[in-house]
């Protein structure tokens, strides 16, 4: 199912009921053509990368890692959110171009830190199912990070439960090699898929990121119990827990009370353009860098 948009300041979704099938088709083709131009021909000038801090809640909101989040801004379509263009990129294979762009940008960023003799914090990258199904994926990652002189411990990969619908043999082999490079694996959006627990059973992940839907209504006792239970299960399994989408002080206090170690959300910071992130890190007194 494809959706289409029109440009201008307001980013509007045209649902099939408001326009003819032909119009929808034409818009979708234009959107796809623009995405293709942005990813393949245009030297990725319309793509950019943001970093969002992940903090240690227990140790005074100390910066721990950051997640890389891609943005696509197009003249006609405006700022298209990743939730919209990543699925299109996955369908068309453009996700491989985007994935390579993101990894290289992150490596360049880490390299910049190194050159200034600062110890970089690890950066987490979202990896799509389609990338993990590429038999050469782990080797490509190894080559790229080697070409930037980056070690695996400077990176983390976030995967979602959607991997359970893919070619498990190839995916498991890629993950094994990636972990062999020292890259940690996090299960993203934990709890929203239909096989969260089965995935923990089958894949050796290091971290889980509890989806923001569970923290949204923390005043509801049921949501609270779910988070508590997931955290104690994760502890039992030796997994690190990160709670996503933390926006209020009340939520932070709740997480502190139940001894949840890591959080990410607008409460601490929105995603920051990669060019401004170094400034943010230097300004941040609560900075927990990787020990060499
Ligand atoms: P995600 O990996 O779960 O990333 C977290 C999303 O939550 C981001 O949305 C982030 O901006 C948003 N967020 C963070 N804190 C808060 C908060 O306090 N409140 C609310 N309401 N939202 C918060 P974003 O950047 O729009 O990305 C959406 C999704 O697109 C990501 O979800 C990820 O699945 C995908 N994505 C983003 N960048 C990439 C990428 O480089 N590659 C791939 N394959 N997927 C990506
Ligand atoms: Mg993520
Ligand atoms: Mg998530
Ligand atoms: Mg997501």
| Class based on secondary structure composition and strand pairing | alpha/beta
Strand order of the largest sheet: 3-4-6-7-8-9-10-11
Radius of gyration: 20 Å
Principal-axes geometry comes out as: globular
Ranges where pLDDT stays below 50 over 5 or more residues in a row are 4-16, 287-292
Number of helical regions? 11
Please summarize the sheet with the most strands: 8 strands, mixed, barrel
Strand-and-helix sequence, N→C? EEHEEEHHEHHEHEHEHHEHEEH
For the termini, the CA-CA separation is: 47 Å
Name the hetero compounds present: ligand C2E, magnesium ion
User: What kind of assembly state do the chains in view correspond to?
Assistant: single chain
* Fraction in beta strands: 15-25%
| Count of β-strands | 12
Helix content: 40-55%
- Average predicted confidence as pLDDT: 87
Domain GGDEF: 1-91
Domain EAL: 28-285
Protein name: EAL domain-containing protein
GO molecular function: cyclic-guanylate-specific phosphodiesterase activity
Structural write-up:
- It is a single chain.
- The protein is an alpha/beta fold and 292 residues long.
- The chain has helices at 21-41, 82-92, 95-115, 129-132, 137-147, 168-180, 196-202, 213-216, 221-236, 249-257, 274-283; strands at residues 4-6, 12-14, 47-56, 62-74, 78-80, 123-126, 155-159, 184-190, 207-210, 240-244, 262-264, 272-273.
- An eight-stranded mixed barrel has the order 3-4-6-7-8-9-10-11, surrounded by five helices. Strands 1-2 form a two-stranded antiparallel sheet.
- The chain contains eleven helices and twelve strands.
- The protein is globular and about 50 Å long.
- Residues 4-16 and 287-292 have low confidence and may be disordered.
- Helix 5 (137-147) runs parallel beside helix 6.
- 43% of the residues lie in helices and 21% in strands.
- The structure holds ligand C2E and magnesium ion (3 copies).
């Amino acid at each position: 199912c494809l959706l289409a948009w029109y440009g201008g300041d307001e980013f509007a979704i045209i649902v099939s009921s408001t326009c003819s099938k032909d119009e929808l088709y034409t818009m979708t083709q234009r959107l796809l053509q623009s995405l293709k131009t942005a990813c393949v021909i245009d030297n990725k000038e319309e793509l950019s990368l943001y970093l969002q801090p992940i903090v240690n809640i227990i140790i005074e909101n100390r910066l721990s890692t950051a997640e890389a989040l891609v943005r696509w801004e197009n003249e006609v379509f405006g700022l298209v959110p990743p939730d919209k263009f990543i699925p299109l990129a996955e369908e068309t294979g453009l996700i491989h171009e985007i994935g390579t762009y993101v990894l290289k940008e992150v490596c360049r960023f880490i390299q910049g830190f190194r050159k200034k003799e600062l110890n970089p914090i690890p950066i987490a990258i979202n990896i799509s199912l389609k990338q993990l199904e590429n038999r050469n994926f782990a080797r490509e990652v190894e080559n790229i990070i080697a070409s930037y002189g980056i070690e695996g411990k400077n990176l983390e990969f976030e995967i979602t439960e959607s991997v359970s619908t893919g070619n498990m043999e190839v995916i498991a082999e890629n993950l094994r090699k990636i972990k062999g490079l020292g890259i940690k694996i996090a299960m993203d959006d934990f709890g929203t898929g239909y096989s969260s627990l089965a995935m923990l059973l089958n894949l050796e992940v290091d971290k889980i990121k509890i989806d923001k839907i569970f923290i949204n209504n923390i005043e509801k006792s049921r949501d609270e119990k779910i988070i508590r239970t997931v955290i104690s299960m994760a502890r039992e399994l030796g997994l690190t827990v990160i709670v996503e989408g933390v926006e209020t002080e009340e939520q932070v206090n709740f997480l502190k009370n139940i001894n949840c170690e890591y959080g990410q959300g607008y409460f601490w910071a929105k995603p920051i353009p990669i060019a401004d992130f170094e400034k943010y890190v230097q300004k941040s007194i609560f900075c927990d860098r990787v020990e060499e």
